[in-house]
Input
Amino acid sequence: MRAIISAGGTGGHIYPALAIIRKIKEKEPDSIFLYIGTTDRMEKDIIPKENIPYLALEVKGLNRHNPLSNIKVISDFVKAIKISKKEIKKFNPDIVIGVGGYVTSPVIYAAKKCGYKTFIHEQNSIPGLSNKFLSHYADKIGVSFVETIDSFPKNKTVYTGNPRSEEVVNCKKQDKSQYGLSKEKKLVIIVMGSLGSKTMNEKLASSLKLFSKKDYEVLFITGKTYYDSYKDLKVSKNVKIVPFAKDLISLMKDASLIVSRAGASSLVEITAASLPSILIPSPYVTNNHQYKNAKVLEDKNACVIIEEKDFTEERLVCAIDEILNDKIKYQKMRDASGKLKVATSATKVYNEIRSLIDGD
Output
């Protein structure tokens, strides 16, 4: 297979894109790829390290607060379409795949206008602006949540789950003792996304003292940027503070509960690990989509939501204790979380792509 894949901005788009690439390689080892991303976001560093040919486009998202700045945004978008058309024709792919982020807009649009088959995937429960626009130019649309199907044309939308889910399901459990944690005690992981959160780290750090007499352990992952501010905090022996966890998805399989933001990538990892969660959605994201993501889990009794504006130290610790100390509630939450995973998600995406190419 010859495939162009585009995704950018955050790990929530990039890692599902990589999961699709790996699944295509598994099924068709001789496949050839071109990844199209931005000049200045995470993918520009991550993708080349995966030895995947990379093309960078200078594109930005629309600025809702400063409309005048969008003159350049639109100009860059038009230029990106022209470059995309040229590079797509040169590569001559069997399929062009978009996995979210504003960089996908000129790529998928250009591919469709050039007569190539297109597939897009939406990770969030509420579609982003790019995928809403691209739904008119995609031949097939995959979604992570059943609830999202109604947001797109039904005749070309399919529930695949998030392709990242399959990788998490199949990864091996990591031994938590390497963090100085006990194999016998329950583990609560507290992490506010891969980079951490300044506002929430400050609030969470003040709650650590309340865990001193608990019979479970807590691993507080600050994010590399914020670690120096918290590494010297005086905490009890059952609390560990680290900048990051190298294989967090593997560690989650040895945990009892996670306190997390509610980005699409985080939620697919949580549900793939069948882990109960306390979710604190970021209020700083477009269309409040993290809250809406979390609400899908809450409606299925798989999580407890604490909004950032309502957060207190006591409320967090009370919620953790209530879940861990009630065996029936805990098991119901674990079961509900596990039911939301799609264990063959990447395979489902591959099958849709292959069917599209074959004209089935």
Notes: The CA atoms of residues 12 and 265 lie 5 Å apart. The chain has a mean pLDDT of 93. The first strand starts at residue 2 and ends at 6.
